[in-house]
Design a protein that fits this description.
With 147 residues, the protein is mainly β. The protein has one domain (2-141): Jelly Rolls. It is 7% helix and 41% strand. It has two helices and eleven strands. The strands form two sheets. The protein has a six-stranded antiparallel sheet. A hairpin with a 6-residue loop joins β3 (29-35) and β4 (42-46). It is globular and about 35 Å long. The two termini are 24 Å apart.
Length: 147
């Protein structure tokens, strides 16, 4: 994971721990976030297809595409657009939200009962691409919020 204290453009509001913009250029983005304890609190990623996306409460649910907390079906935005801006927000109350911008954009949000505290770590990448070609499958994080 990456420690967000190193981010230049992390502009959370006073009731948030994290608010950043990432830009993805491949169809299967993955974002894992944790805060408060040493396990992943949330994962955002695909849900049984490159056209379905969900937020999961832990890594094993994301890995097996089971028990999504919130999901959307039939969205091809990541496979159709070369660069997709995505805003990632983690509230101190445990709410995790993902805003995907564009004509086919969507919002997912999931609430957890755990109050979260600093430090927050984030893991960003692409599903199924441990050794992906970084010149083809780029992603950008810590982007200016007004992108």
């Amino acid at each position: 994971g990456v420690d967000i204290s190193d981010f230049e453009y992390n502009f959370p509001k006073n009731y948030e721990l994290l608010r950043i913009v990432s830009v993805f250029s491949w169809e299967l983005p993955v974002v894992g976030v944790y805060g408060g304890k040493n396990e992943w609190n949330y994962y955002f990623g695909n849900y049984n297809s490159s056209k379905n996306f969900a937020i999961y409460r832990n890594h094993s649910d994301w890995y097996s595409s089971t028990n999504p907390c919130d999901f959307v079906m039939g969205k091809e935005i990541f496979s159709k657009k070369p660069y997709v801006p995505t805003e990632i927000v983690l509230g101190r109350d445990g709410r995790f939200s993902v805003f995907v911008y564009g004509e086919e954009g969507f919002v997912l949000s999931c609430e957890n009962s755990e109050e979260l505290t600093d430090p927050v770590k984030i893991d960003i990448g692409y599903a199924g691409k441990k050794n992906y070609d970084s010149s083809v499958h780029k992603f950008f994080f810590d982007c200016p919020v007004n992108l």
